[in-house]
Amino acid sequence: MKKSFWFLIILSLLVVIFSVQNAEVVPIRFIVWQGELSLAILMILTFLFGLIVGAIYYAVSIKKKKKDKNPVGDIAFNDKTEEEISDNQEEENSNETKFNE
């Protein structure tokens, strides 16, 4: 398995251990909403929220890179150099003259 997978597993375990050790209830205020929540749940939710935001950002950046690579759409670019193209054209022209003779 990839190293990044194991890194995420270890990071997740560390967050869970930290959250369990800090399980006391804490007051939460967000704009006009107020309440109390276990610090463990708060930490896990915060971690998951960050994970989701990061995954969305990553997906959008990958999609953008693919779009920038091929701005025309589904049409693939020709990877040949100008020299290879001219060589192919010369070869086709010589084949046509041989066929016509």
TrEMBL record:
One of its GO terms (cellular component) is plasma membrane. Residues 21-66 form the Lipopolysaccharide assembly protein A domain. The chain crosses the membrane at residues 39-60. The keyword NAD does not apply. Residues 81-94 have a biased composition (Acidic residues). It holds the Pfam family LapA_dom. Residues 65-101 are annotated as: Disordered. Keywords: Cell membrane, Membrane, Transmembrane, Transmembrane helix. The keyword Membrane applies. This is LapA family protein. It comes from Plebeiibacterium sediminum.
